[in-house]
Design brief:
single chain; about 200 residues; alpha/beta; Helicase, Ruva Protein, domain 3; Dna Topoisomerase Vi A Subunit, Chain: A, domain 2; 5-stranded mixed beta sheet; 7 helices; elongated; binds zinc ion
């Protein structure tokens, strides 16, 4: 017999599919939601629908944005000749929070992972190559220091090198296997300043 039948069971099941939400959290959230005033639930549902419908990828850097071109790419004071390649928008946000990086980004939306069948064609590499045809002086590879991040870094460095553009990799100091988004700003800046040429 199902512990919770019908609507509540379905709600728990959907919430459990969210990243980082286990069975217990899903139950807690479900009971919280069904006890909220209907207008609060509607506001939450509408916000999710609106975000899903209106957020797209920047036509230049693939960052998530409401507009054709994201605020970073459309900011004329940013140095477009330096491109920092990150795995996802959360990593971009981590570097952006330091307020010290003045170049632009390229968001890959993933990393190469042969183990789970993610190849170079599955992340935003083609879009990066197109950008290299412009006036680019340096590509800073800031993928995570996981196996996937390192594989991706190596792949990008091989792609960029023949163009003659300088390729650098953020320094260690970012712990092995560490997700950029959880690392403090000082460590991030040190990793950026200590980047090494590949
Ligand atoms: Zn952009």
């Amino acid at each position: 017999m199902e512990l919770y039948s019908g609507y509540i069971g379905k709600l728990i099941e959907e919430l459990e599919r969210l990243p980082g939400i286990g069975a217990k959290s899903a139950q807690r959230m479900a009971f919280y939601l069904i006890n909220l005033p209907p207008e609060r639930v509607k506001r939450l549902a509408d916000t999710m629908m609106e975000a899903r419908a209106n957020i797209r990828q920047c036509s230049e850097c693939c960052n998530l944005t409401d507009k054709e071109v994201c605020p970073i790419c459309s900011n004329t004071s940013r140095d477009k000749s330096v491109i920092m390649v990150v795995e996802n928008t959360r990593d971009l946000a981590a570097y952006e929070k330091t307020g010290k990086y003045k170049g632009v980004y390229h968001v890959l939306h993933g990393a190469i992972s042969p183990m789970i069948g993610i190849g170079p064609g599955d992340i935003k590499l083609k879009e990066l190559i197109v950008r290299l045809e412009g006036d680019v002086q340096e590509v800073i590879i800031a993928t995570n220091s996981s196996l996937e991040g390192e594989t991706t870094a190596m792949y990008i460095s091989k792609l960029v090198k023949p163009t003659g553009i300088k390729v650098t990799r953020i320094a260690s100091g970012v712990p092995v296997g560490g997700d950029l988004e959880y690392i403090d700003e000082v460590t991030l800046l040190r990793a950026l300043e200590g980047r090494i040429e590949l």
